[in-house]
């Protein structure tokens, strides 16, 4: 790989959408300065896209556009994959690595599904794979995990890694909006897609949890190892109750390591409004982590958007180009641990559960006795929640009942809730939010 | 530098104080896991200290202790400098680099004074110099600047980079304490030294500002280029006035780049209580930065302490050991720009100035006319500040007058204040705090 000093480092770009075209812009517009940073120039040799006629940004030379993605993937020193998804992207990333090219990608779904296989393929072919943009957009989190914390032990991470849901929850919190209203506004402002399922059900965050767990704990964690709960059952009553307790609700990707294994989960959680994550507003992202020696760390920034994501992508390209200029490569992603996935009940938690109930005498006693029968201890009860528009089936005769438990395991909690829902006086879907210390 | 695969990478440690002994602990206690992360074992070959009899921690083998610092500095692959200061540390770091050893240091004063010379010496000798722990302790900020943001343009950074002053200001804010009381408490709790000058006058933060500016703008900025104001004139009245405006006062290291050059400054500033830096409490540190494409980023964590600082040091050691294992080196610190230091008045600012005045008729008119004479426009006035114990010379007949200006340049403001202080009705030292947007 060691080339002559002034010979350009060849870069191929797969995908010319929002992030792809911004990435090309950073490479082309900053070519002189990037050459100074690297010690050799970068040359963008090809941009693969579905329809060259649709790519009209002035900084991409028309002559570079091609529909022959495989040719771009297999004829460069560095291949930037911004196609997305786990189909074609997988084929082309594999082809690039097998050719000994290094890959830079922002594709969280690809890495959550095929990451360990691709990391090993890269090492086998003496190539690198970088993907800082895949988690937290512009936020440098993966490089700190691979390098800065290389002398420490990460114990757990809590990430706000989906800007759409953070925006929705933040609007609900600051403006008292109901979920449906906040979602609609997010869609109107372009923060949420027309089909918001991947965001609001937590699947996007789940991909990032798998990546964080793999890098943080040096063990294989895939998307199928992540348990996921979204925010669709959270309503204004939950937010109001949180506020009264000086807390906020955030959708978190939570990864941890205990003696029973590693866990990777996505769920809505109540955190103190004094926690650093509580101040992460709007569509911003942040990853809070605790390491054995470094103690608490937090990384905050833009989790999405063309320019911020492109900044992270080009940071990776420059880092890898420096390695190539020196005839070497970056640190391998070593998954030297083989930790099991911790059982769901390994860690006990406290929960805030809100039921919609028929307002009749004895409801609380009936619900409380179900909790008692399952041995789930109750820490607090709130029956006078302000009614909200979206409480399913809510009308003047119905109420909401919120119960905060002491520590319990999840299986027991789920069984308790199932039995509570069998009561005639309890209707609709409950909301379930974890309470973090 | 390429050695056989199983041959240990030799590490020498200079200094066995709090950080030094914690660093040794992380290397010794985690030796097996670090070898997996690097691909080769680390061997701690020597620990130089002033008095081996004083080093009693069980994880440092007595046989490694020596007073021959030069021998340790010149006989290893990686030399960790934790002596501190700019005297002996400079001699030994230079000797190590000249021998082709890579250096890891936490010494902000050394880098603020001799950084550019040492970066060039490292490159000349095909060695690396890493110093993540020198700014923000355990917080990964220098590596993101060198690598993650290598495809972007940093525009400015605001850093809370001194835990002692942040602790003092935070105690003043949350408990309404006066400066002297908060300082005394910080000393009792070990957050401030017996001689707190270096912290409270801003000199410690100034070293970090010089390092941040050099790495952020790829240009030489030394400690003598940094202008410094401390927090000794801030009192409870300033904090109370800030609170009333939903702001907090923080001591910031501020580095920026404009067409007129780069600036590196340390000063107390008013920031909105919704700014991410406002939630940085107690002795925590954080660096907030704005880059052209990545937009806003913030990095938060422990800025000091034995274990957190050692975590950053060993992260650097592992990173460099991987390079050595691959027979290569890390990215050079390229200072390819030669920006001038921007003149003091290049950027206009708004200021909050608090005077101690004799409570007599016409004082406000007299002070206001001095401001008018200098063309400094007044944005707000507050004459009924709650008196505090430490207002210099305060007694029943004296008051405090706080004036917030519109944008002005610093030379004009200083001249205005000098003239105000000539008035008979104005006494003592004023406090001057910048107002940030």
Automatic annotation (TrEMBL), chains A, B:
The active site is at 208 (proton donor). Its EC number is 1.1.1.3. InterPro entries: ACT-like_dom_sf (IPR045865), ACT_dom (IPR002912), Asp/hSer_DH_NAD-bd (IPR005106), HDH (IPR016204), HDH_cat (IPR001342), HDH_CS (IPR019811), NAD(P)-bd_dom_sf (IPR036291). GO terms for biological process: methionine biosynthetic process; threonine biosynthetic process. Pfam families: ACT, Homoserine_dh, NAD_binding_3. NADP(+) binds at residues 14-21. Its cofactor is a metal cation. GO terms for molecular function: homoserine dehydrogenase activity; NADP binding. CDD domains: ACT_HSDH-Hom. It is an enzyme of class 1 (oxidoreductase). Pathway: Amino-acid biosynthesis; L-methionine biosynthesis via de novo pathway; L-homoserine from L-aspartate: step 3/3; Amino-acid biosynthesis; L-threonine biosynthesis; L-threonine from L-aspartate: step 3/5. Residues 352-437 form the ACT domain. Keywords: Amino-acid biosynthesis, Methionine biosynthesis, NADP, Oxidoreductase, Sodium, Threonine biosynthesis. L-homoserine binds at residue 193. NADPH binds at residue 108. It catalyses: L-homoserine + NADP(+) = L-aspartate 4-semialdehyde + NADPH + H(+); L-homoserine + NAD(+) = L-aspartate 4-semialdehyde + NADH + H(+). PANTHER family: HOMOSERINE DEHYDROGENASE. NCBIfam families: PRK06349.1. Belongs to the homoserine dehydrogenase family. Catalyzes the conversion of L-aspartate-beta-semialdehyde (L-Asa) to L-homoserine (L-Hse), the third step in the biosynthesis of threonine and methionine from aspartate. This is Homoserine dehydrogenase.
């Amino acid at each position: 790989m060691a080339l002559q000093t002034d010979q350009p480092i060849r870069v191929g770009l797969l995908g010319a959408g929002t992030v792809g075209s911004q990435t090309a812009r950073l490479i082309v517009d900053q070519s002189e300065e990037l050459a100074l940073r690297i010690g050799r120039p970068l040359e963008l040799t090809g941009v693969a896209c579905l329809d060259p006629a649709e790519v009209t940004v002035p900084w991409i030379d028309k002559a570079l556009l091609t529909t022959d993605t495989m040719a771009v993937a297999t004829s460069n020193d560095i291949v930037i994959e911004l196609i997305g998804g786990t189909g074609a992207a997988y084929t082309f990333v594999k082809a690039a690595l097998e050719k000994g090219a290094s890959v830079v990608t922002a594709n969280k779904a690809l890495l959550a599904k095929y990451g360990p296989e691709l990391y090993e393929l890269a090492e086998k072919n003496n190539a690198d794979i970088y993907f800082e943009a895949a988690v937290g957009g512009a936020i440098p989190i993966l490089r700190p995990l691979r390098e800065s914390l290389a002398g420490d032990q990460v114990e757990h991470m809590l990430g706000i890694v989906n800007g759409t849901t953070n925006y929705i929850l933040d609007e609900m919190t600051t403006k008292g909006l109901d979920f449906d209203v906040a979602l609609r506004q997010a869609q109107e402002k372009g923060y949420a897609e027309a089909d918001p399922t991947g965001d609001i059900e937590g699947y996007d965050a789940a991909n990032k949890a798998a990546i964080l767990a793999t890098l943080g704990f040096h063990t294989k964690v895939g998307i199928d190892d992540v348990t996921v709960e979204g925010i669709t059952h959270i309503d204004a009553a939950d937010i109001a109750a949180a506020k009264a307790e000086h807390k906020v609700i955030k959708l978190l990707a939570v990864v941890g390591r205990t003696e029973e294994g590693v866990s990777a989960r996505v769920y809505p959680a109540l955190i103190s409004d004094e926690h650093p994550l509580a101040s992460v507003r709007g569509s911003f992202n942040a990853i809070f982590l605790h390491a054995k020696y470094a103690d608490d760390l937090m990384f905050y920034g833009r989790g999405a958007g063309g320019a911020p994501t492109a900044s992270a992508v080009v940071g990776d390209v420059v880092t890898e180009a420096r390695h190539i200029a020196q005839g070497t490569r970056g640190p391998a992603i070593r998954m030297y641990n083989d930790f099991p996935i911790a059982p769901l009940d390994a860690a006990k938690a406290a929960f805030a559960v809100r039921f919609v109930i028929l307002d009749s005498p004895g409801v609380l006693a009936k619900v409380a006795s179900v909790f008692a029968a399952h041995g789930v201890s109750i820490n607090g009860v709130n029956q006078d929640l302000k009614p909200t528009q979206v409480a399913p089936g809510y009308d003047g005769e119905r109420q909401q009942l919120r119960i905060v438990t002491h520590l319990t395991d999840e299986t027991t909690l789920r069984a308790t809730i199932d039995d509570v829902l069998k009561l005639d006086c309890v209707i609709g879907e409950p909301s379930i939010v974890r309470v973090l210390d």
